[in-house]
């Protein structure tokens, strides 16, 4: 995990000078709004990169600055300062050629209410030289049952799928997805996830925002945690949840009957080195939480098996992406 307090303007994925230029490269971006005579620093010195063939996720609490960052990346907002390069151009002044290579699915769908999905998708497909066949997308995203119902009458999840189909028609090289799984039932979520994975494997650069840590953990190749308008931490999910030597873990042991009786008489973790570790016992299950070291995990395992019994369960779980997110973002909503 790279915590960015020390080096706030260094996007890590650029470390290898021989690496391919990122499809999206943002350096020291700031965006300030005026609200009731007051300045709102929506984005504050944010740097990031997103590469082809990868899913890059922006995580952040409400108001962290994710949508504003994406709007600058898409050329919908002009940065107050900093630079944005999208497919090697400034998106604010991008040529029609570059715009045609980018797909965007907005948080609320942004779709016209009166038209029907089939009409809308056919209309959008006429804007491109080599569009994906509309029927193929309708099939892929399960749109057929409501293809001729006006968008106004669709559920949030159905609109979401139409919005995604519209974003995909032009075979985009870069795809922006704002909360792609919002409002989706488990089946639709699976369809959308499979599609994102296929697009990624085919070389598309996918940039998504989400509030759902499970989605990020499942999909993202690289994660930026945005806090108060800048990057507070970044890395692969594995990097971010890495336990290293002393990271917080939860260890659970369900002891065999005899060992559980021994535990009540003399718990092994009453020495000084376990002072910071919290532990609870319920029936035969002991749960230890804290910065357990590898030595302590070994000691506990040895103790639990010392009478040649095998514990019913024995597990050590690292912190989750959500734990990391809360640690980095704090608990104060903006
Ligand atoms: N046009 C605007 N005028 C004034 N303030 C704005 C404007 N757009 C965004 N903001 C403010 O900038 C901050 C960042 O907003 P942004 O929408 O980028 O956050 P976000 O991370 O996308 O949040 P969410 O997860 O809720 O969508 C918020 O405090 C928001 O109120």
Describe this structure in words.
It is a single chain. With 334 residues, this protein is of the alpha/beta class. It has two domains: 2-241, Rossmann fold (3-Layer(aba) Sandwich); 249-318, Alpha-Beta Plaits. Helices cover 30% and strands 27% of the residues. It contains eleven helices and 14 strands. The chain has helices at residues 66-73, 96-100, 117-125, 134-140, 156-168, 186-201, 213-219, 237-241, 257-265, 294-305, 321-329, and strands at residues 2-3, 24-35, 38-50, 55-60, 81-86, 102-105, 174-178, 205-210, 222-227, 230-235, 249-254, 278-282, 285-290, 313-318. The chain has a seven-stranded mixed sheet, sandwiched between helices. Strands 12-13-11-14 form a four-stranded antiparallel sheet, covered by helices on one side. The longest helix has 16 residues, at 186-201. The site of adenosine-5'-triphosphate has 13 residues, from strand 2, strand 3 and helix 1.
Summarize the structure.
The chain is of the alpha/beta class and 334 residues long.
Radius of gyration: 24 Å
Uncertain runs are: 5-14
Question: Rough shape?
Answer: elongated
CATH class of the largest domain: Alpha Beta
CATH topology tier name of the largest domain: Rossmann fold
Bound molecules: adenosine-5'-triphosphate
| Major beta-sheet overview | 7 strands, mixed
Please tell me the CATH architecture of the largest domain by its name: 3-Layer(aba) Sandwich
Task: Give the neighbour order of strands across the main sheet.
Answer: 1-10-9-4-8-7-6
Count of all domains: 2
- End-to-end Cα distance: 24 Å
Mean pLDDT, as a whole number?
86
> Quick one: CATH superfamily of the largest domain?
P-loop containing nucleotide triphosphate hydrolases
Secondary structure tally: strands? 14
Helical percentage: 25-40%
User: What would you call the structural class?
Assistant: alpha/beta
N-to-C SSE string, H for helix and E for strand: EEEEHEHEHHHEHEHEEHEHEEHEH
Biased composition (Low complexity): 1-19
Keywords: Antibiotic resistance, ATP-binding, Nucleotide-binding, Transport
Membrane topology: Peripheral membrane protein
Main location: membrane
